[in-house]
Amino acid sequence: HAKDRSGDGIRFYEPAMDRLRQQRMDLERDLQRALAHHEFVLFYQPVLNVDSNRIVGVEALIRWQHPTRGLLAPGAFIPAAESMGLIYDIGIWTLDAACRQATAWPRHIVVSVNVSAAQFRHDGLIESVAGALRRSGLDACRLELEVTETAMIDDVPRAARILRRLRDMGVQIALDDFGTGYSSLSFLNSLPFTRIKIDRSFVRNLGDGSGDGAAIVRAITGLCSSLNVIATAEGVETREQFDYLRRVNCPEIQGYFISRPCPAADIQPLLDQTD
Ligand code: C2E
Ligand code: MG
Ligand code: MG
Ligand code: MG
């Protein structure tokens, strides 16, 4: 700290808010560079079909291989990328990379790409999706977009139009983190989802099957089966959670119990084994 005092007096008196603002500016400058320098990578996490005991899909989860800070999770940079408008270019990169990767996998494997609220509000989304499919040559039915209720609540008629166009192209649509947002039933009915992902907060609280988490998971699973939508339980970490979900006929499972998200090279053997 003596160094701070001697060299640069102003820095020493800098209030905490200014330091935060400086960190923010550094992050924004770094993010701009990251795209150009190919510092983003996709990790992939398999989704298991419980009945067949086969991997049926893989979710793409972005990471940032930062030159000095190491491998960063999306929570550390996606919010900043959204507020600076860089999320659109990152989204195009992600779609391209995921679709290209999926062409190397068995044909029954669906790749899921997360679309944040800001991306969903942007008019270029459909064109980005069409472009990624065209450039990679991936069959549209092998791409799934994951959207959240938050992204659609402001303007449900617009959301319905966009999802309908994507469905007409053949793309699948998952409602991500279900149960944490508005969880409106009319939502489920009026929008063309192919899959509902049960948020991991409910899975975490499954316990012995007698508590609230279990009741909610049972209810969502039953609802999905009546609506003909596939339910996927997220964040399954233990044998107990897995067994409970199988007992209540939850068709798909994702979580550390099956596999952590990992680089494409590590996913490949899991897919070949079940093909
Ligand atoms: P999400 O789409 O709900 O993804 C699931 C998150 O749960 C991932 O965190 C995953 O690593 C983590 N997870 C998976 N299984 C387990 C488990 O058994 N236990 C626990 N505790 N966690 C588990 P991650 O990779 O940090 O991603 C966080 C969020 O960032 C994602 O939530 C998604 O909303 C967003 N995200 C990830 N990749 C992208 C992307 O390419 N674009 C955009 N816009 N958002 C992304
Ligand atoms: Mg997701
Ligand atoms: Mg989720
Ligand atoms: Mg989430």
UniProtKB/TrEMBL annotation:
<feature type="domain" description="EAL">
    <location>
        <begin position="24"/>
        <end position="275"/>
    </location>
</feature>
<protein>
    <submittedName>
        <fullName>EAL domain-containing protein</fullName>
    </submittedName>
</protein>
